[in-house]
């Protein structure tokens, strides 16, 4: 015996409003790859890598270099102000 009626999930039907040619092409390539065509597998190998994925993040990569540059400028500005107002 339940005191409260449980709600059911709302259902809807989704119809896409545009045609994505790239997605359709990738789906076709995946279907062909599942069928065992080796030439398609060779072409698909490099397509799913993200740009810049082969790079090894180093100490002076983009954001780190920018952080050190800003930190250096701030330190120089503080030293300049301390010397100017004779607080150093």
Provide a short characterization of the protein structure.
This protein has about 90 residues and is mainly α.
Shape: elongated
Low-pLDDT runs of 5+ residues are: none
* Alpha plus pi helix count: 3
Radius of gyration (CA) equals: 29 Å
| Content of β-strand | under 5%
Class of secondary structure makeup: mainly alpha
Distance from first to last alpha carbon: 81 Å
Helix content: 40-55%
Structure report:
- With 88 residues, this protein is an all-alpha fold.
- The protein has a domain at 21-49 and 61-84.
- The chain is built from 3 helices and no strands.
- Helix 1 packs across helix 2 (38-44).
- The relative contact order is 0.05.
- The mean pLDDT is 78.
Keywords:
88 residues, mainly alpha
Helices and strands in order:
Blueprint: H1 21-35, H2 38-44, H3 62-84
Helix pairs in contact: 1-2
């Amino acid at each position: 015996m339940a005191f409260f009626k449980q709600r059911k999930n709302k259902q809807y039907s989704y119809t896409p409003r545009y045609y994505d040619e790239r997605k359709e092409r990738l789906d076709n390539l995946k279907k062909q790859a599942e069928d065992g065509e080796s030439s398609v597998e060779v072409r698909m190998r490099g397509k799913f890598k993200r740009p810049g994925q082969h790079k090894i993040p180093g100490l002076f990569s983009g954001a780190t270099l920018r952080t050190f540059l800003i930190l250096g400028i701030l330190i120089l500005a503080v030293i300049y102000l301390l010397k100017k107002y004779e607080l150093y």
